[in-house]
Specification:
The protein has helices spanning 3-18, 24-38. The chain has 46 residues and is mostly helical. Helix 1 runs antiparallel to helix 2 (24-38). The longest helix is centred in the N-terminal third of the chain and has 16 residues, at 3-18.
């Protein structure tokens, strides 16, 4: 994922959360995937 696309996704997620369009549970579900993408990790081997 390109850094600009990731930053744009984070921006829109924060805006949606601020406008009460996303719940805390939804944000907590999406947050790990965004953090992994931010550090360039595509998956985690368990």
């Amino acid at each position: 994922m390109a850094r600009g696309s990731l930053n744009e996704t984070i921006h829109w997620m924060l805006l949606a959360y601020a406008r009460h369009l996303l719940t805390v549970e939804q944000v907590n579900t999406l947050k790990p995937a965004l953090l992994l993408a931010q550090f360039g990790v595509s998956h985690i081997d368990v």
